[in-house]
Design a protein that fits this description.
About 40% of the residues lie in helices and about 10% in strands. The protein has 35 helices and 28 strands. It binds thiamine diphosphate (TPP) and magnesium ion. Thiamine diphosphate (TPP) binds next to helix 15.
Amino acid sequence: MFHLRTCAAKLRPLTASQTVKTFSQNRPAAARTFQQIRCYSAPVAAEPFLSGTSSNYVEEMYCAWLENPKSVHKSWDIFFRNTNAGAPPGTAYQSPLPLSRGSLAAVAHAQSLVEAQPNVDKLVEDHLAVQSLIRAYQIRGHHVAQLDPLGILDADLDSSVPADIISSTDKLDLAVFKERLRMLTVGGFYGLDESDLDKVFHLPTTTFIGGQESALPLREIIRRLEMAYCQHIGVEFMFINDLEQCQWIRQKFETPGIMQFTNEEKRTLLARLVRSTRFEEFLQRKWSSEKRFGLEGCEVLIPALKTIIDKSSENGVDYVIMGMPHRGRLNVLANVIRKELEQIFCQFDSKLEAADEGSGDVKYHLGMYHRRINRVTDRNITLSLVANPSHLEAADPVVMGKTKAEQFYCGDTEGKKVMSILLHGDAAFAGQGIVYETFHLSDLPSYTTHGTVHVVVNNQIGFTTDPRMARSSPYPTDVARVVNAPIFHVNSDDPEAVMYVCKVAAEWRSTFHKDVVVDLVCYRRNGHNEMDEPMFTQPLMYKQIRKQKPVLQKYAELLVSQGVVNQPEYEEEISKYDKICEEAFARSKDEKILHIKHWLDSPWPGFFTLDGQPRSMSCPSTGLTEDILTHIGNVASSVPVENFTIHGGLSRILKTRGEMVKNRTVDWALAEYMAFGSLLKEGIHIRLSGQDVERGTFSHRHHVLHDQNVDKRTCIPMNHLWPNQAPYTVCNSSLSEYGVLGFELGFAMASPNALVLWEAQFGDFHNTAQCIIDQFICPGQAKWVRQNGIVLLLPHGMEGMGPEHSSARPERFLQMCNDDPDVLPDLKEANFDINQLYDCNWVVVNCSTPGNFFHVLRRQILLPFRKPLIIFTPKSLLRHPEARSSFDEMLPGTHFQRVIPEDGPAAQNPENVKRLLFCTGKVYYDLTRERKARDVVGQVAITRIEQLSPFPFDLLLKEVQKYPNAELAWCQEEHKNQGYYDYVKPRLRTTISRAKPVWYAGRDPAAAPATGNKKTHLTELQRLLDTAFDLDVFKNFS
Ligand SMILES: Cc1ncc(C[n+]2csc(CCOP(=O)(O)OP(=O)(O)O)c2C)c(N)n1
Ligand SMILES: [Mg+2]
């Protein structure tokens, strides 16, 4: 019957139009998004051959005829033409012509009917036009959706209506609609005109507006498209180049009546809005002069997040990691993560004392970790909010990295159990490049978290700046299009529409495991913070905001009018929550001490003692047995799988490695191999990430072997070392420092039992990740009591390569070290070196030997606490024949040498030494070569400072005392205002109680890190070597 009806409908536009009229008269006055439209029906045509059983066949014929009129029998052709031209029931059908010569009169009659029919091309064109129209709505309908709750701004910053959709800004006013249509048809709108409105069109398979119907009158098609795409939800998705995904979205938004909520769901939504709204009101009442970056104008964020979490929990997720900026953070902590209210309220008490370290940076920045039962799904759920700096969006990649790590540790390879939600402000989402860099990690095999749900609090303002001055893209969310993420814009004053898109977003993530964006178009009721006057800069917007009813009130009135709740119930809900706040407020007065440790986003159970202290204050030897070294060396110089052809050049490299192993020596690459391989044996996961790290920028590493004959066939020998070893992850990253370093920092947050390393291609590139270094790595523990053992490998060295690629800017890292240059610590303290490490904010080293590099990597894990480790790594030293270490330097009992003292002839007769040169890193090899050439090996001692920070006061004091007659000089290849000089000099002076000067042998100050001229480079080098070994040079200054 259904087929027959639709078929008939297709054929009989006039009758169909009557039913549409009936429907539009029945439409409720205040139609909302997604009214259920199912009352369309058409009477059965009175053709003699149309019956329930024939209808399928007729429909098939009709479809075939639509595509090509010649493909059906002439009689069908005539019938369809007649019907389409409006022939009354019973007259459209003409008997087929007799096979033999028949009556001429009958032929002439049929012919005349055909000729009288409109051109079949027109019919096809009309159908194509309707298809185009449907597509236009799908692509551009969101541009006219009513997204701004204030009704004054266009969410896409463009007030025009796209020319290819028959829409009006006031979709429900038929008069306006008609006028718009008339205007459009004057210029010819796809060839359709007003008279086509009541014609019935077959719907393409790329739309779901028909519901059960496969054809609809044009008027109804437009109405349903407007309902789906131009109400309070604007769906941006047609750029996605995957048909299944597009169909999925169409089905979610076009199916008539799909957005339905039970009364229970509506009541829950109202209760959540009550909490969200009353929480801000409570804070405002109690602390009216405090900044809180309130959520007023976007209270719907709380139920939105809860819906995403509920739905994800229903789909199997049990750990949600979140990152968010200032706006609404307290509300999210209270009502989404469920931090105890008294813990939040006590933060407003200025007399609260901190019980532990941490810079008191609590309210808007500290993270949180909480495990509880999700009341809707009755399943366990862990929620974690990552601590974040003020720097908007900087936490994005950190959240991703932590999520990836949590997935990794629980074997969640598809993101079914752990997911992340990122919140953004509209201005920051559009403006900050890190958003783009983070999106680019979303689909990379070693970085994907299998979909993030992004929620934008789009209050259409950034501090005092109007979006029209703040972005060039139509929406703040356009950046998400680069990864084919669907974007759901929604008017935040329609809480049900918001809940619906949040449900769809969560379902999208669990279905396709890809990113999705929910753009909550809202407003900001107050200034940027509660103290700011917004009328200075946004007078008109704020005049409107003053008139705007809060969403809670609007929604409560709606539900009361629908009889879903009554007024007393609603008021009861409010007073219940107010009472909860009041009681928590009373309890908060008892909180005298702030425990910042209660605000950790990633606790490391078992790593510390119960009161958060390290389990010991010592570090075992970082050496290894000969057997282990040899085994790792052998694997590192072989191809551990069968029938695997490696490149000839690589065979030579592996052969050289094999020879080194036989000779019991290591170069840099092999030392790194030994450190990694041994930690893997001890169950420590290792993750090395950065640009081209698999081979190594300098082609020294080769951790991933590529079969020369089979595409994508690779082998990672490091994963073939031991039977039950931890996995080794080595991954070439996207070309982003900010994003990838942030990601690895987040990865390292999740567990102390992993060595996570990020390598810059060249050290100077770290400055595009400066925000991660400055805001997280350097002060992370001080601000947020958060330890992190990330390792930064920064290739550094002046090698005549010009100003780029030369300097990893050691001066900057050293300038940010927290040790006091003027205070000599208690050198007699037990475990001085470990205590120093415990107290520092990060460790900065510049190793001159592969063996020391090996030890410092192993020490990073064997220490009983975690500190970031910055290593300036070599370039030319990777292949320098003298930069080798013997196995003897790596055997049990050996350890990392913070200082490598002089051990040549000068050390044998220290009284004869005239100058003690201190240096670090590669320049040591230039100095020893020059010393030998000048034959002053007995007069000049050279001591290497391998650990620059924390400064090895104890060992250096011994060195100075050993050479009583020597003058002291610091030698570096970097320019004087760069490198280590400014850091080392005052500390050396403190070490010797300022008893002697500390001279400088190095390049002059300069703006650029290095000259671009090779000859100048060599001249400068020679000059600094001359200074270093001219024993009279400082005489005139003393
Ligand atoms: C990287 C960075 N630049 C500047 C600021 C200063 N700032 C704090 S909030 C803000 C406006 C943010 O606007 P939006 O992202 O729309 O969030 P809203 O405050 O409107 O919720 C600015 C510029 C910052 N915190 N971070
Ligand atoms: Mg904003």
